[in-house]
């Protein structure tokens, strides 16, 4: 049994690559040919975003069936509902959009197309999040836990065991859900705070006598600044979910642990988040244009383009979850290497305790 299961990506990946000696790419990417290679391994350096992407591809190649099965069984249903907006009531979206437009007008913002589109997109996002919440808290959350467990198994040189995963999930599911609820509250609080502050800033400029067209520019600058803050919050929330799976922390403790763990690595997390967001937005735009708006006469484009875009969206979500897991392992390994800590991973400890209980 490994004492450092899942806690040192590069060190464990080197061992993993030795087992997979038929793949020259794996060996060339990690093994050191110099005599001081072991010394370099002991001085672990955190990965940048590109290295994390490469590590994600290597892990996906190592166990493609397992990860793609997770995407097909757990992520695809969520992607289908999310892209199609089948659960979203457009009448509610219109009412919420109208109220947001009234709020924007009362604060002095001009009702230009960019404002109208932003209000409509925000309304759709809010209603979709509320209506799809049962899917998020079940299938999507389970897929994240399965991905984290699979990545941990890869670093441990173990096969994904569905029975063992079931035992582990039954023990940690409560803390995963609690953490996810706190994540939802954090994101909802950030968005609410954004709207309140945006209205306050716009109203302040309006009271000072600025014309609506000029008020739009400081509002846009404020929106850009807040987007960066929201991106940081999203990174902390994503890593908090991983922490709730791999460690004993849950809820606000997981969020605080995540904030502490990624300190100094925020730029890497931002690049990961930016890449995933661009990928998802691109697929969403294609689905909106090719499937919802455009169809070939009899609607035949929906028959093959819709499922293809759902698969693409699910794959992007899979890669995003894998990269978040590897980012956690990278930060964890770097900090443990710096402090010379040694600990038995929570998942391994749960497995041992379950096995002992069965023996007794």
Automatic annotation (TrEMBL):
Q: Does the keyword Transmembrane helix apply?
A: yes
* Highest taxon listed in the record's lineage: Eukaryota
UniProt feature, compositional bias: Basic and acidic residues: 16-41
Q: Provide the alphabetized UniProt keywords.
A: Membrane, Transmembrane, Transmembrane helix
Locate the region Disordered: 1-41
- The membrane-spanning stretches of this chain are 65-88, 133-155, 176-201, 221-246, 267-287, 307-329
Q: Known PANTHER family for this protein?
A: OS08G0107100 PROTEIN-RELATED, SON OF SEVENLESS
Q: What is this protein called?
A: Son of sevenless
Organism, as annotated: Anisodus tanguticus
Q: What is the lineage of its organism?
A: Eukaryota, Viridiplantae, Streptophyta, Embryophyta, Tracheophyta
């Amino acid at each position: 049994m490994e004492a450092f299961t899942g806690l040192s990506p590069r060190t464990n990946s080197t061992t993993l690559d030795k087992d997979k000696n038929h793949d020259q790419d794996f060996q060339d990417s990690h093994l050191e040919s110099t005599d001081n290679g072991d010394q370099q391994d002991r001085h672990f350096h955190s990965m940048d975003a590109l290295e994390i992407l490469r590590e994600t591809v290597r892990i996906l190649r190592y166990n493609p069936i397992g990860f793609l099965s997770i995407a097909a069984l757990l992520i695809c249903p969520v992607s289908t509902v999310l892209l199609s907006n089948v659960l979203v009531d457009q009448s509610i979206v219109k009412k919420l959009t109208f109220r947001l437009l009234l709020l924007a007008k009362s604060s002095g913002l001009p009702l230009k197309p960019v404002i109208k589109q932003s209000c409509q997109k925000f309304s759709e996002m809010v209603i979709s999040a509320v209506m799809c919440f049962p899917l998020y808290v079940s299938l999507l959350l389970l897929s994240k836990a399965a991905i984290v467990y699979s990545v941990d198994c890869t670093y441990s040189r173990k096969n994904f065991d569905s029975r063992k995963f079931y035992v582990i999930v039954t023990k940690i599911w409560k803390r995963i859900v609690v953490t996810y609820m706190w994540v939802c509250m954090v994101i909802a609080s950030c968005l609410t705070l954004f709207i309140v502050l945006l209205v306050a800033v716009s109203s302040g400029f309006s009271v000072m006598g600025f014309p609506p067209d000029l008020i739009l520019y400081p509002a846009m600058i404020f929106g850009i600044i807040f987007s960066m803050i929201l991106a940081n919050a999203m990174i902390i929330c994503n890593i908090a979910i991983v922490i709730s799976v791999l460690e004993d922390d849950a809820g606000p403790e997981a969020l605080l642990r995540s904030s502490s763990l990624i300190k100094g690595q925020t730029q890497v997390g931002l690049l990961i988040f930016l890449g995933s967001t661009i990928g998802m937005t691109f697929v969403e735009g294609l689905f909106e244009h090719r499937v919802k708006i455009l169809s070939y006469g009899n609607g035949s484009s929906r028959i093959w383009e819709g499922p293809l875009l759902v698969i693409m969206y699910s794959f992007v979500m899979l890669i995003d979850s894998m990269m978040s897991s590897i980012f956690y392992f990278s930060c964890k390994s770097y900090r443990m290497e710096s402090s010379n800590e040694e600990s038995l991973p929570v998942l391994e400890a749960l497995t041992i305790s379950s096995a002992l209980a069965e023996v007794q």
